[in-house]
Amino acid sequence: MKILIIGAGPAGATAARLLSKNHEVTLIQDKEWDKPCGGGIKRKIFKQMNLDENLIHHYIDKVYMIYKNEKIPIDLKGKNLAIVKRKEFDKYLRDLAVKNGAKLIYGKFKGFGYEKAIIQRNGKKELIKYDLLIGADGVNSTVRKALNLPPIPKIITHFAKTTQYKVDTCEFFFDFNLSGKYYAWAFPHLNQTHIGSVDKKSFENLCKYLKISVKPKGYFIPTWQENIQIQHKNVYFVGDAAGQVMPLSFEGIYYAIKSAEILANSIINNLDYKKEWEKRYLKKFKFMKMLEKINKTKLRSFIVKAHRLNFVKNFSVSLWLNERN
Ligand SMILES: Cc1cc2nc3c(=O)[nH]c(=O)nc-3n(C[C@H](O)[C@H](O)[C@H](O)COP(=O)(O)OP(=O)(O)OC[C@H]3O[C@@H](n4cnc5c(N)ncnc54)[C@H](O)[C@@H]3O)c2cc1C
Questions:
Q1: Which of 7, 36, 68, 319 has a CA positioned 20 to 30 A from the CA of residue 121?
Q2: What's the structural domain count of the chain?
Q3: Position 76 in a domain
Q4: What pLDDT does 115 receive?
């Protein structure tokens, strides 16, 4: 079968890698870019997907929850959080796909015509035939737009890289004025720190709090909902283009890769992708959505402070770490 995948981020590149063993796969990527990101990912993905741990530049075994100037340490029960550089990580995943036989084309998906995909490259438009198409083109999915499907629900986040504030582990900020309805964060990177918060005002307050001055850029991140359509006839969606970002924690990389694995497995074994995804993740996503709602209320201060207690810390870390696979 001819499979055309639009977008070669973690979701698209992984789907291409896994499907190219059994199918003729073409992977379309618009540009080489460094996706704005904290780069934090559950370390277990490296074993699960047989990825090279040399891509990890920080191994994190403890994070801090910060609220009203109190820093609550959370022990992650080992070096279970990995930090990667997205440009390198995404390229590595694409290289694996190509090694497995996928054809990688740098070009931009523009829409559909005559039951083919319109791809623009080197200033020219060409039509590519496919039997099955995968939209892995991120939160602003052009494939969704071309099919007139509702856009992915999302929120804006503000992001910057700075050398003015140094961290050697991940910090999460929960004061409402720094993080709005969600959380703000600072992650260690090579010679710099990646920081982010939601709306611009919260980001400015975060900078004041950290005593730094940086200009952020705004990017969208999906807010998962149960009713997001992830298939339309022979077109499937995965990763951010399917809204598959964990509520509350906003982990997108891990779930983009794992959802791509579920999709590839469903295509290869002729299974229902939506059912397979729901079997694996629906319960957890719904539970986290409920916690996300609570986090938006005044109960947040109570929950954050409860993390002073070891059994609460243990519960949160187990929830984060332990799920099937
Ligand atoms: C500021 C910020 C910080 C984040 N931090 C984290 C974090 O620390 N940990 C975490 O797990 N998640 C994080 N996320 C979320 C994470 O980045 C995404 O969930 C993840 O990248 C989703 O992978 P994906 O492959 O679905 O989409 P993407 O990574 O967005 O990949 C989509 C690809 O499609 C390409 N593309 C788009 N349109 C077209 C087109 N028309 N034609 C061809 N190609 C196209 C793009 O260039 C891109 O490479 C963060 C997000 C933001 C905005």
A1: 36
A2: 1
A3: no
A4: 87
| Residue 247 CB less than 6 A away from ligand 1 | no
Residue ranges of alpha helices (H) inside 24-130 are 44-48, 86-99
Residue 11 Cβ inside 6 Å of ligand 1? The answer reads yes
- What is the reported pTM? 0.98
Q: Does residue 218 lie within any of the structural domains? A: no
- Each residue of 243-263: pLDDT tens digit? 999 999 999 999 999 999 999
Instruction: Compute the 3-state secondary structure of the chain and give helix, strand, coil in percent, each to the nearest 5.
Output: 35, 30, 35
Report whether 221 contacts 155 (CB < 8 A): yes
User: Does residue 184 have its Cβ closer than 6 Å to ligand 1?
Assistant: no
Cα–Cα distance measured from residue 137 to residue 127, given in angstroms and rounded to the nearest whole number: 18
CATH code for the domain in which residue 107 is found: 3.50.50.60
Cα–Cα dist 204/192, whole Å: 19
Q: Of 37, 30, 20, 172, which Cα lies nearest the Cα of 97? A: 20
Residue 325 is predicted with a pLDDT of 54
Q: In angstroms, how far is the first alpha carbon of the chain from the final one?
A: 29
Which residue range forms the structural domain that includes residue 126? 2-37+84-154+223-294
Q: Is the CB of 239 under 6 A from ligand 1?
A: yes
Q: Are 121 and 28 in contact (CB under 8 A)?
A: no
Residue 135 CB less than 6 A away from ligand 1: no
312 in a domain, yes or no?
A: no
Q: Is residue 79 part of a domain?
A: no
For the record, the structure tokens of 15 come out as 């789907």
In angstroms, rounded to a whole number, what is the distance separating the alpha carbons of residues 297 and 169? Answer: 27
Q: Please give the structure tokens belonging to residue 305.
A: 């402070």
Question: Which residues of the chain are under the pLDDT cut of 50?
Answer: none
Nearest-atom index, ligand 1, CA of 252: 19
Question: How many angstroms separate the alpha carbon of residue 162 from the centre of ligand 1?
Answer: 21
Best CA proximity match to 307, nearest among 73, 102, 139: 73
